[in-house]
Amino acid sequence: MPKLTGIYAKLLKLYGPQGWWPLLDVEGKNPTKTGSMKGYHPKDYSYPKTDKQRFEICIGTILAQNTSWVQVEKALQNLKKINYVDPKKILKINESNLGKAIKPAGYFNQKAKKLKRFSEFYISLKGKVPSREELLNMWGIGPETADSILLYAYKKPYFVIDAYTKRIFSRLGFFSEKAKYDEMQKFFMDNFPKDYKKYNEFHALIVEHAKRCCNKTNPLSEKCILKKACKFKNI
DNA sequence: AACCAGGACGTGA
DNA sequence: TCACGTCATGGT
């Protein structure tokens, strides 16, 4: 079985720095991705630089639940248009109108409620870093969202496990398809340097690789650089 | 035209 | 605990 550090190096060489977490606007950065968002910032792990950016990332992780990123972009841009990427303003707007603004991201009734609950929590923090337990105790925030917030909004080394990570690394034989979240996370955190910059980059690279060549029903093995170790074809 | 996307929660067994 | 159903828009 290949090592995580080796896979990380391969993916980084192949795809390059991914510039996560994307923001609505990043001053002085050139877009490296298609679409209207110019907010990727490759090789710069200093974001978020402001509280406003931090909050934007937090609500982005909630909006991104089981939804493609392009849809999240639309929802965020709608919020930005009315200048509502702000916890106090999200508390002020009525839930129905909030839902209307974030509609493109899907599950808009649930997500409107989640954004309101989170905004209240965020204000109560007064700049303090939330613990993982505090986040998990919030309605609407599960393990992946909690870890995404800690990693990408607060630069804390919590490895994010998503459906892509599970798919790729179970196919590579690191764990079974029905491994639990905490089990998978522990594996990554025990076998990879505990560095928030590398956690940031690795997760983003995993997403990129999964999108390009690790489909749900079949891997695009001809272009997958990890195909030698992939067990999928033998299942 | 099904299928799925940078999940989480509620329910009944 | 766990296997399912629900939430919902919009790309391919």
Quick tags:
mainly alpha, single chain, 11 helices, Endonuclease Iii, domain 2, 235 residues, Endonuclease III, domain 1, DNA-binding
What order do the helices and strands come in, and which of them pair?
Elements: H1 4-15, H2 51-63, H3 69-81, H4 87-92, H5 95-101, H6 108-125, H7 132-137, H8 143-153, H9 163-171, H10 181-190, H11 196-213
Helix pairs in contact: 1-11, 2-6, 2-8, 5-6, 9-11
The protein binds a DNA duplex (13 and 12 nucleotides) through α3, α6, α8, α9 and α11.
Describe the overall structure.
The protein has 11 helices and no strands. With 235 residues, the chain is an all-alpha fold. The mean pLDDT is 92. The chain is globular and about 55 Å long. It has helices spanning 4-15, 51-63, 69-81, 87-92, 95-101, 108-125, 132-137, 143-153, 163-171, 181-190, 196-213. Helices cover 52% and strands 0% of the residues. The relative contact order is 0.13. α2 (51-63) packs antiparallel against α8 (143-153). The chain has 2 domains: 1-25 and 159-235, Endonuclease Iii, domain 2; 46-154, Endonuclease III, domain 1, CATH 1.10.340. The protein binds a DNA duplex (13 and 12 nucleotides) through residues 61-62, 64-72, 74, 103-111, 114, 139-145, 148, 160, 162-165, 203-204, 206-207, 210-211, 216-217.
